[in-house]
Amino acid sequence: MKRAQLVGFSVAFTAAGLAYYIASAFMTPPAPIMVEKQVDSTDVLVAGSDISVGQIVSEGNFRWVSWPKKAITPDYITKGSGGPARMHEFAGSVARSALLAGEPITTQKLIKPGQGGVLAAILPQGMRAISTKIKAETAAGSLILPNDHVDVILIRHLRGRSGQDENVADTLFRNVRVMAIGQQIETKGGKKSADVSASTATLELTPKQAEMMALANSMGEITLSLRSVADLSSDPERAGGLDLNKPQNNSVRVVRYGAKSRVYGVN
Question: Ranges for the SAF domain (predicted)?
């Protein structure tokens, strides 16, 4: 190859490399400019790990997390306002509700020792907890879980006008929350069914309803009718004015095995 050709190839190769370098420089996006913005924050006491209902907590269950001051409510416990002492006071308390890791700790979510047991801690103010006997056929096949809502039905025997015994079913309460099934007060580990060996269900009722429930337990058999989650807000009012000592007028007579019986519907 002639010398002139080698020089020409060298010049062309150098020009091509220079052109590629210049083009790459123009195509490379500029480096982002980082602007630091100071946020006014303070340390807030939060759950260091998931805390379940009824769990007894210690100082190891808490931690401090930087929190924007604009997002802090008066219920939050801050480090600058006696927080460490408050954290020490919370040691040994019982969780009234489930807490997720990183969720702020408040006095409403924990109950101190001596202020009541687990069930009393999760029972809303003004409400009462009362239990009733259950079995598979009276509790939706043992598929009712804590925090489900049910209708409470009383089945009892009455002497009819004809002098024959009649079976009567009365809906005592509607849309009642189940607080516990046996000793189980919450569902853990994705459990989809209650303890089949449980013999009691604890219900959340008003004081007047609790009186009626105690009377109904002595009058006949209680059946719990499970409600759909889509039906909870459509029927917020609870029945409770039924007089168990008086028969109802809206009765339906059904013939069973040659004997008549009545079923009462109360709404």
Answer: 42-111
Q: Look at the pTM and tell me if it is higher than 0.85.
A: no
Q: What b/e string do you get for 213-234 counting C-beta neighbours within 10 Å, with b at 16 or more?
A: beebeeebbbbbeebeeeeeee
Element spanning 126, H or E:
none
Residue 11 lies in a domain: no
Element (H, E) at 153: strand 149-159
Residues with Cβ within 8 Å of residue 161, at least 6 apart in sequence: none
Based on the domain organization, do 141 and 218 belong to the same domain?
Answer: yes
The tokens of 263 are what? 């079923």
| Domains: count for the chain | 2
Contact 176, 204 (CB under 8 A): yes
Residue 80 pLDDT grade (very low, low, confident, very high; cuts 50, 70, 90): confident
| pLDDT of residue 240 exceeding 90 | no
Please write the tens of the pLDDT for every residue from 93-139: 888 778 899 999 988 888 776 666 677 777 888 899 999 998 888 88
Residue 142 is inside which H or E element, if any? Answer: none
- In the chain, % of residues over pLDDT 90: 16
Cα 237 vs. chain centroid, distance in angstroms? Answer: 21
Which amino acid, one-letter code, is at 7?
V
Q: What is the pLDDT of residues 27-63, one digit of tens each?
A: 656 667 776 666 688 899 999 989 887 788 888 899 9
CATH of the domain at 98: 3.90.1210.10
Do 179 and 70 fall within a single domain? no
Same domain, 183 and 226: yes
121 domain-assigned: no
53 falls within a domain: yes
138 and 248 fall within a common domain: yes
pLDDT > 70: percent of the chain: 66
Find the domain containing 81 and state its range: 41-111
